[in-house]
C-alpha cells in the first residue's frame, strides 16, 4: 500500500520558517518533519511514498536527489573517468519516493486525485506533511479492512491550550490544566480507491464536500488513538517538538 503525503501547502501560520522552505521541510532535530513522518510509516512496513508537491517543491526534490550524498562519507575520483564512491549505508535504502508536481494552488482533494491517477487502482494511505504521532499505522489498516468503510481516519485528542474550569453557578468547583479536547482528525487516513470518484478537480477540498458527504453516508470510520499526536502549525509547536527531540523524549520516534 502506497503512502500519499500532501506537501504542497503554503504553511502561512508558520511564516517564520515557511517563507524560505515548504512546511514539510521545516527541521526537527536536523531532519525535515517530512522525514520523521516517513520514518513512522516505514517502521510499520510502508515504504512506497508519493509526495504531492506544490509550494517550493524543488527543495523537496533537491533533498531526496541528494539524500545519499548528504548522509554518506564520499570518495571522489576526479578526471576524465570520474567516479563517486559512497562508504555508508542507511536505513532508508528500501524506500521508493515518487515526487509528483501537483500545482501551486491545487487543493487537497485535487492533489489526492492527481496522485491516485498516478499510482493506479488501489487503496492508499494519506496524510499531511506536518503532523507526528506514535499511532500504530498497521493496526489502522487492519481496522480499515475489517470494517469496510471508504475512509478510516485516525482520531486523536490533543491537549487544550488553556485550563478548563468546572463552574457551578458562579463557584469554581474544579480546575483541569490543559484538558483533552474532543476527538479530531489526526490526518493519518486509509482511503479506499473508490473515493477518487468524489474528487472533481484541482479546486476540490478533500475535507469539505468529499469527506462531509462520506460522513453523512456513514462511510467514514474512526480509528481512535489515545497516544501521542502533535501537529506543527505554529513556531511555538516547532520549538516544542525540537525540544522533545533534543531531550531524547520524542514519543513519535518509534523506529
What does this structure look like?
- This protein is α/β, with parallel strands linked by helices and 255 residues long.
- It has helices spanning 15-18, 33-43, 57-65, 67-71, 108-119, 137-147, 209-216, 235-246; strands at 2-7, 27-28, 31-32, 48-53, 74-77, 83-86, 96-101, 124-128, 131-133, 151-156, 164-168, 171-176, 184-191, 220-224, 229-231.
- The strands form 5 sheets. A 7-stranded mixed β-sheet has the order 7-4-1-8-13-10-14, sandwiched between helices.
- A hairpin with a 2-residue loop joins strand 11 and strand 12.
- The radius of gyration is 20 Å and the shape is globular.
- The two termini are 19 Å apart.
Labels describing this entry:
255 residues; alpha/beta; Spore Coat Polysaccharide Biosynthesis Protein SpsA, Chain A; 7-stranded mixed β-sheet; two-stranded antiparallel ribbon; 8 helices; 15 strands; 28% helix
Amino acid at each position: 500500500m502506497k503512502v500519499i503525503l500532501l506537501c504542497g501547502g503554503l504553511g502561512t501560520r508558520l511564516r517564520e520558517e515557511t517563507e524560505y522552505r515548504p512546511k514539510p521541510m521545516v527541521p526537527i532535530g536536523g531532519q525535515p518533519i517530512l522525514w520523521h513522518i516517513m520514518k513512522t510509516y516505514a517502521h510499520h512496513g510502508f515504504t512506497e511514498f508519493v509526495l504531492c508537491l506544490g509550494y517550493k517543491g524543488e527543495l523537496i526534490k533537491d533533498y531526496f536527489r541528494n539524500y545519499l550524498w548528504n548522509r554518506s562519507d564520499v570518495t571522489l575520483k576526479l578526471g576524465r573517468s570520474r567516479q563517486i564512491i559512497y562508504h555508508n549505508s542507511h536505513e532508508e535504502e528500501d524506500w521508493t519516493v515518487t515526487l509528483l508536481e501537483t500545482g501551486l494552488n491545487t487543493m487537497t482533494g485535487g492533489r489526492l486525485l492527481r496522485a491516485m491517477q498516478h499510482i493506479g487502482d488501489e487503496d492508499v494511505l494519506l496524510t499531511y506533511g506536518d503532523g507526528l504521532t506514535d499511532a500504530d499505522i498497521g493496526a489502522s489498516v487492519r481496522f480499515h479492512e475489517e470494517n469496510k468503510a471508504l475512509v478510516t481516519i485516525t482520531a486523536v485528542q490533543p491537549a487544550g491550550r488553556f485550563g478548563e474550569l468546572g463552574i457551578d453557578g458562579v463557584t469554581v468547583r474544579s480546575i483541569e490544566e490543559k484538558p483533552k479536547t474532543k476527538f479530531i482528525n489526526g490526518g493519518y487516513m486509509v482511503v479506499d480507491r473508490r473515493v477518487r470518484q468524489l474528487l472533481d478537480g484541482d479546486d476540490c477540498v478533500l475535507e469539505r464536500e468529499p469527506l462531509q458527504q462520506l460522513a453523512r453516508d456513514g462511510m467514514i470510520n474512526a480509528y481512535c488513538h489515545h497516544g501521542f499526536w502533535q501537529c506543527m502549525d505554529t513556531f511555538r509547536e516547532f520549538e516544542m517538538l525540537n525540544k522533545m527531540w533534543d531531550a531524547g523524549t520524542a514519543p513519535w520516534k518509534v523506529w
